[in-house]
Design a protein that fits this description.
This protein has one helix at residues 31-40. By secondary structure, it is mainly alpha-helical. The relative contact order is 0.17.
């Protein structure tokens, strides 16, 4: 049995960004793209998971 207060669950949002690299050791700062997503979704308090393919 569950007891106590329950908090509203925030919706999950999925977004994609595409970045081209010069090779396997290339490092690209994607902070501006991630910040833009947070601003567009009007998220003030969130957890962001980033996954890289390739």
């Amino acid at each position: 049995m569950l007891t106590g207060q329950f908090h509203k669950v925030a919706p999950m949002v999925t977004k994609y960004i595409k970045v081209s690299t010069k090779g396997s050791a290339d490092i690209i700062d994607i902070t501006p793209q991630l910040t833009k997503i947070l601003e567009e979704e009007n998220l003030k308090d969130a957890v962001m998971f980033v996954s890289v393919i390739g």
